[in-house]
Amino acid sequence: MEAAALVSRRRLWLARIVLVLVALFWSLNGPLIKLLSQPQDRLPAVTIACYRSLIGGLVLLLLAWRQFPTLKRVRPGWLVGAVLVFSLMTLTFVVATTRTAAANAIVLQYSAPIWVFLLSPLLLKERFHPTEGLVLLIAMSGVAVIYFMHPAHDKPALLIGLMSGLGYGLVILTLRRLRAADPMAVTAMNFLGSGLLLLPLVGVWGSFAITSSRQLFLLLTLSLVQMSLPYLMFAWALRYVEAHRASLIVLLETIFNPILTYAAVGEPVPRPTLIGGPLILLGVIGWIVVTWRASSVAGSRAAHDQAAADGK
Known about the structure:
By secondary structure, the chain is an all-alpha fold. The chain has helices at 2-26, 29-36, 45-64, 76-99, 102-109, 112-123, 130-149, 155-177, 183-205, 213-237, 243-250, 253-265, 271-311. α4 crosses α9 (183-205). The protein is globular and about 55 Å long. Residues 303-312 have low confidence and may be disordered.
């Protein structure tokens, strides 16, 4: 028994370390997208978004194709919707990162819980406790600080960053509706479907040409190291770490991303984001804690009621 407990504790700590690495790998999106938008390696944002999803999707397809039959367990409309909102999230995040500071793009993407709270009653018929809304007001105040303290010429890019947060929130909602399917199959479908969906947009607003080995290397790193590998690591870690704790650990991405971007291209964090960013993170952390406690209380009550019923 003691040996089994020791192995369990070691796996738990290993999973926590893996989640920190997941946040670190995800944070590479800032510097890699910035490098791909520099004059010497410039690629259109839609091209970056398309190839990032397409290459990653092909890799995940090789690993998840046996689980694809589980997609039949859910409605086709939600599968289509999942690909659409994943594409929205991916494209808007890349565009925002190329047009404003990487710190702005990543922090605004983590405004997703605000959209989850607002849209869950409409899309999932689920209602949250009012306390969650009060906590998320802190995050909304952070969004307001970032938006209104930036100069007017930055506001279009900030709105695109907010759309990325909306896309991320919708991805969370669709994943909840698709939970009957294998998560690896859903992830592969989202990646590959997004890459294919964005291909026509590349023909209109982008370019299919990869003109240098450096561009190819950066794209492969973005697709495989920044996207595919950490998703696999994240899925493994969730076997040992509770979802709410995993969500808190990967928030480190909002810290790693600006640091790595500054190291790669010398881009500082804008002053409004230094003020508003912590407010968004505080609101998101509060939301995670409140929802976890609410679900724990609900689970305890259900178990108590079941025990009472069994006692009868």
